[in-house]
Glutamine synthetase
Amino acid sequence: MTATHTLESITAELRSDDKVKLAGVDVDGVLRGKLISKKKFLSVVESGFGFCSVIFGWDMHDRTYFRELLISNAANGYRDLLAKVDLQSFRRIPWENSRVGQDDREGVPFFLISFYDPNSGEPIPPCPRGLLGSVVKKATENGWKAMAGAEYEFFNFRETPKSLGDNKGADLEHITPGMFGYSLSRPVQNQEFYYGIFDTCKKFNVPIEGWHTESGPGVYEAALEFGEVTMMADRACLFKYVVKSLGSKYDITPCFMAKPKEGLPGNSGHMHISLVDENGRNLFARSTPDPNPLYPDLVHLSDIGRHFLAGLLEGLPSIMPLFAPTVNSYKRLVENFWAPVTVSWGLEHRAASIRLISPPTASAKSTRFEVRTPGADANPFYVLSAILATGLRGIEKKLDIPIPPLGSEETGGGERLARNLMEGVVKMMEKGSVAREVFGDAFVEHFAGTREHEWKLWEEAVTDWEVKRYIETV
């Protein structure tokens, strides 16, 4: 069980340190932070401190949004937000050495922060950690706790920021060739990097449950250890931080793009979710098999689980931009690559958007949903917020499952999900959308505006494909 940190215990922990690293999460799931002195940290740890709001006013390449949005704009002078330190997020960065104390502790102290409106004191609508916290609060009001797991696939290229700039992202060198999923021999070729990630994640309190090569040249997959949903979102975000940091030490660029290479499988970011009561009992598990279920796939799923599933299915089209947030995301969501493209579900069905995992293939206490639509490029806080919020809505409204499960050889299902980012944004922004209902207009307007910015840049871009196809022949 994770220890509870207090200001007193943290002050004692930092007695031999002179610096602290802090970071918050932006709309794209990117960590934005700074190094401060311990003296400064101790002076603001209770009150909070100012942090420039522009991190919610620009994109992942620090380009301000073409349309100024609510949080950070010229009208408010790109004011500071109030950043508050989460003491429970404390860990040490094992690959960044600090002063070593008498008990031989090592690594720069690290804390996550969340962002608040300096006037109201409330979390700003797009703050990823704040959004998830507000959804989790709804679950706890019922005496429930949400549990989650995350799986990430990612390519690894033998490239550096400089080489990527020089070759403009073309002709990338994979760290290993060929398709060799679950290989025992391929990791040996980069074993310091491979084992370094596993061991460093453990030290950084981002424990990996399963770690292997995936089908694709130089592709790895990690299953993070199952845990409480807010802790899992933190760990999912920090997992990328570990991987990218260690990659830089070996001149390797890990790539979490949804679809880095044409003709190869994409990078998924599957999320697992379940609810438990105050005694840890799985609320999705049925105590006794249903003798007359609507569908055979539901025989071991509780009524709460069925309503949760119905909420997910009804909400899925409206929350797609949270699961697939980039232009590239939709290159992964195509037929024939085990990537779901419709509103669909099924017992142990990997072609469905939502895979039900329950007896007889899993124990009752492991009953859960695997949401397979998100890519590795998605913000884990938004993804888990969307899954939990739409599921809780289904329970609250006692929704019925709207479509039958996929059959054993089916890959279809219900409504076709958005084919591109703008389709998804339009669906999300519809009046009375599920996204507006569960997250509110302020969040939807801000997030959708950031995605409109992404789409506008794409529409204005001239791609290599266009040049190669048309430069001579038209």
Notes: The chain is about 30% helix and 20% strand. Residues 229-249 form the longest helix (21 residues). The CA atoms of residues 53 and 142 lie 34 Å apart. The two ends are 65 Å apart (CA to CA).
